[in-house]
Amino acid sequence: MLPIPVSTDRRHHGFILRRTALLNRSRATNLTVLGLAAIACLSLLFNLHVYFSGATSPSSSPLNKLASLPDLQHNLNHLIIVPGHGIWKGTNPSPEFRTRIDNWAFETFQTAPEPHRLEVFFQHISKAVELALADERSLVVFSGGHTQRTSTTTEGESYLRMAFSAGLFHSETFSRATSEGFAMDSYQNLLFSIARFHEFTGRYPEQITVVGYEMKRARFVDLHRAAIRWPETQFTYIGIDVDGDNSQAKQGERENGYLPYRSDLYGCHTYLANKRRQRNHDARYPSYYSSSPELWPLLVWCPSDPTKLFSGPLPWS
């Protein structure tokens, strides 16, 4: 028998080496795939844990950790809202100075020179603080955005600053008062304040009290409250108007406020939408879409029929 050529042994040996290398690579690939699958499973389990635990405990949600929020006051259940009507630019809250026109920035139609027409803003603030001091489970939200180019702050922040400057809370560390700085109209005063309450407490209110103009009662009670389907038995409106003849102001409220909202419940069409855009000088975008995701469908609700009521789920109905 003739001997096997040496070249054949080399080819056979090379084949075995290549086959072994391929098997090793295959094992490594399989191990890599298994490792990635294990990581994916762990990630899924972790995300499910965070999601479901966050649904029952707002303070443990990733959003709250990301925002480095303090301990939320979960025991509060009463929301007291003060809609802003101007921005206080002053530093001295005494009657002589808080009623000076040059200490305020507001809409042109509000620039009546009578001091008592500015004093009513302070009366709204004072009444809300009085209610808050009487109810330890309440939170005052001064609501109003950056509506004026002549100021660098918001309506809500300026009201809050005036309340503290005037010593209304009897303490510089009073913790149950905050501002809401995105609302551009009365409907947003209500809805955004509810969202701000949720940011501050980790829950939604059970009772709402609004302190504002008496002439705007029908707008808030009959239109805004109904638009968000808030229970009427859990809604209180306290109206404080300017002393004297308010017939012209009441007529203006009906023509420029009540009737437009009756025809456009959510204020997102033509006339009312344009007013919002004109007031939003700095193109500010509210945080409530992410901080109050349960309200997202209502926040973006703008039906083609302006009078169609939102029928989706809400935390309070």
Structural account:
By secondary structure, the chain is an alpha/beta fold. It has one domain: 3-Layer(aba) Sandwich (Rossmann fold), CATH 3.40.50.620. The chain has 11 helices and 7 strands. The protein has helices spanning 6-56, 62-67, 95-98, 116-134, 155-165, 186-201, 217-227, 247-263, 270-279, 288-291, 296-299; strands at residues 78-83, 87-88, 104-105, 138-143, 177-180, 207-212, 235-239. Helix 4 packs across helix 5 (155-165) and helix 7 (217-227) packs parallel to helix 8. It starts with 5 loop residues before the first helix and ends in an 18-residue tail after the last helix. The model is unreliable at 53-60 (pLDDT under 50). Keywords: Membrane, Transmembrane, Transmembrane helix. This is DUF218 domain-containing protein. It comes from Mycena sanguinolenta. The chain crosses the membrane at residues 28-52.
Secondary structure elements and pairings:
Elements lengths: L5 H51 L5 H6 L10 E6 L3 E2 L6 H4 L5 E2 L10 H19 L3 E6 L11 H11 L11 E4 L5 H16 L5 E6 L4 H11 L7 E5 L7 H17 L6 H10 L8 H4 L4 H4 L18
Parallel strand pairs: 1-4, 1-6, 4-5, 6-7
Antiparallel strand pairs: 2-3
Helix pairs in contact: 4-5, 7-8
Question: How would you summarize what this structure contains?
Answer:
With 317 residues, the protein is α/β, with parallel strands linked by helices. It has eleven helices and seven strands. α5 (155-165) links the parallel β4 (138-143) and β5.
